[in-house]
Amino acid sequence: EIVLTQSPGTLSLSPGERGTLSCRASQSVDFNYLAWYQQKPGQAPRLLISGASSRATGIPDRFSGSGSGTDFTLTISRLEAEDFGVYYCQQYGSSPLTFGGGTKVEIK
Amino acid sequence: QAQLVQSGAEVTKPGASVKVSCKASGYMFSIYGITWVRQAPGQGLEWMGWINTYNGNTNYAQKVQGRVTLTTDTSTSTAYMELRGLRSDDTALYYCARVTSEKGRIYNGFDVWGQGTTVTVSS
Hints:
The complex is a heterodimer. By secondary structure, chain A is mostly beta strands. Helix content of chain A is 0%, strand content 50%. In chain A, strands 2, 4, 5, 6, 9, 10 and 11 form a seven-stranded mixed sheet that branches. In chain A, β4 and β5 form a beta hairpin. Chain A is globular. Chain B is an all-beta fold. In chain B, strands 2-12-9-4-5-6 form a six-stranded mixed sheet, with no helix packed on it. A four-stranded antiparallel sheet of chain B has the order 1-3-8-7, with no helix packed on it. In chain B, β7 and β8 form a beta hairpin. The interface between A and B is medium-sized, with 26 and 22 residues.
């Protein structure tokens, strides 16, 4: 089973700042099948990024994904107030599919 | 637009079973798979398994294998998740989500999610 470790646990940023979220895998993710989700309280997760770097439909271009192999990054270029929530990475390259523990993004 | 609507909250006792439904609309049901993810209170996301709605093939996480069964009714575009032998640590919010697959492999993230169904296991 691939273990995904996300850091930091919490990120406190002001609107307009840049946010960098990390996801490290215990072994290489097949085909770089790595996704990122945003979850706000009381809501289902929302897909942001698939295939490590492809934005999902309707996702603003301030969200970008990068990385390959075992190290992946989600970057929020200019944080907006609506970007608060918990961000999860997920690998779907091998079974069992696994999620990271999440990074909470707080707005200062 | 594509939508998944889940059945209502369930309260059940240890050892019992629960069956949660997930009705799809706005897209061709048999072209996409359905996966199930749960989230214990205050915790992260846990993948449970997925079903290929075209041929009925399933893949389960080891943690729930033997207790969970995923099925579909293509005539009503509905997917089901049945969990048996419920324990207190099965108390969680259960989500269904849509997946894109090819040759038995999921190759995209989960792009459409249901609203979630709360399952509470308590004596």
